[in-house]
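Final report, Chapter 2: Outcomes

The project's central promise was a pipeline that accepts a single protein chain and returns its three-dimensional structure in a standardized token representation, suitable for archiving and comparison. That pipeline is now operational. To close this chapter, we reproduce one record exactly as it appears in the project archive, with the input sequence first and the structure output second.
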Amino acid sequence: QVHAVESGGGSVQAGGSLRLSCVSFGNVRCVGWFRRPPGKEREWVAGIDSDDSTKYADSVKGRFTISKDNDKNTLYLQMNSLKPEDTATYYCAASRWRTVPDLREEVEYNYWGQGTQVTVSS
């Protein structure tokens, strides 16, 4: 059963932009973005709580913006000023609960999308 589906990945030159989307299904809410660079562990990127408060990893702060459209059950990640080090598979993370105690922790989430690939060339 699919609970979340990401889209919007692609290949761009450094300095370019991409907008990722994640549509959730069922009684879950997509509220976090993680990424897995090639050969590395998955890392947290951004999260948004039920009150629309947001948190960002230092590596993307000022360049990425997380937002949501509750009516469309969709989570977004606007990525600007992309760098080669942003190259990774990006995943949206969903929770069964309305609030997530710590948006930075993988253990707080219940479901994951299949991932969408982002490649930034120099």
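Archive annotation: The first strand starts at residue 4 and ends at 7.
This record, like all others produced under the grant, will remain available to the consortium after the project formally closes.
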